[in-house]
Design goal:
- Helix content is 17%, strand content 44%.
- It is α+β, with helices and mostly antiparallel strands.
- Helix 2 (79-88) runs antiparallel to helix 3.
- The protein contains 4 helices and 16 strands.
- It has helices at 19-30, 79-88, 147-158, 209-218; strands at 9-15, 33-36, 46-50, 53-59, 69-75, 92-100, 104-110, 116-122, 137-143, 161-167, 170-177, 180-186, 199-205, 222-230, 233-239, 245-251.
- An 8-stranded mixed beta sheet has the order 2-3-4-1-5-8-7-6, covered by helices on one side.
Length: 252
């Protein structure tokens, strides 16, 4: 069983009022199959599989007015301790730590700039079983108008070390956790949508970013940023038919 190191993004899921539509859109886009949780209290929570391995999830929104959103989950040994650190560092505990059946313990948190993320203390469910392959998570990135504040916050919460590098006109930050860079951060490259002050975005690997973006539009989604080349590969930013933001990358 693959164990995700504490401080490492381990899972992503979609909270959406359009769960049935999500179960149509994403399998057609990424070749996923859906496995719906049989427990009534799970609210139809669906684990998406690629080649039989879990890659991401989708479920109903936590609150009636929540906008559809992809959430990044960071693995931790103690979700309650992480929530305490978040408050001490000036962030917000949006949903206090709670047990997800026998699967794990989680909390929904936000950094001082408003970027929401979740923490996952694994029990039966460790996280995704496939990474960096087409149809699975390959990267997670914070888009924030306050990079300096974010560096302080995430160092206090997860012990991440920020490593800056120039990328064209902006400074790109890699988050180091132990021996690896586990996530990234960039300032907004354009005016942020009104419903997002700062946000974490999930990247899924694909064979062909141009074909995937075109297919997303055919299926009722929106191309937010058309495919472009970068050091990681070729990337596009998309919204699903309900408006949830995600990105795809054909890895170089």
């Amino acid at each position: 069983m693959r164990t995700v190191e504490p401080g490492t993004p381990c899972w992503a899921d979609l909270a959406t009022p359009g769960l049935e539509d999500a179960k149509r859109f994403y399998p057609q886009l990424f070749g996923w199959t859906g496995r719906v949780s049989p427990q009534p209290e799970a609210g139809g929570y669906t684990v998406f599989l690629k080649d039989g391995r879990s890659v991401a999830g989708a479920g109903p929104p936590a609150t009636r007015d929540q906008v559809p959103i992809w959430s990044t989950y960071v693995a931790a040994d103690d979700a309650d301790l992480v929530a305490t650190r978040v408050e001490a560092a000036g962030g917000q505990v949006v949903v206090a730590p709670f047990d997800v059946l026998d699967q794990g313990r989680m909390a929904v948190l936000a950094d001082p700039a408003g970027a929401a993320f979740s923490v996952w203390q694994p029990m039966a469910m460790r996280g995704a079983e496939l990474f960096n392959a087409p149809g699975s998570i390959c990267w997670t990135e914070l888009v924030s108008p306050d990079p300096e504040g974010a560096k302080e916050f995430y160092a206090l919460v997860f012990g991440w070390q920020a490593e800056d590098q120039p990328l064209g006109p902006v400074t790109y930050t890699g988050w180091r956790c132990g021996a690896r860079i586990v996530a990234g951060m960039t300032p907004p490259l354009a005016e942020l949508p009104a419903d997002l002050r700062a946000y974490w975005t999930v990247y899924f690997a694909v064979e062909d970013a141009d074909a995937t973006a075109a297919r997303a539009a055919e299926l009722g989604g929106t191309i937010l940023v058309p495919p472009y080349d970068n050091p990681a590969g070729r990337t596009a930013a998309l919204r699903d038919p309900q408006g949830a933001l995600f990105s795809v990358t054909a890895l170089a």
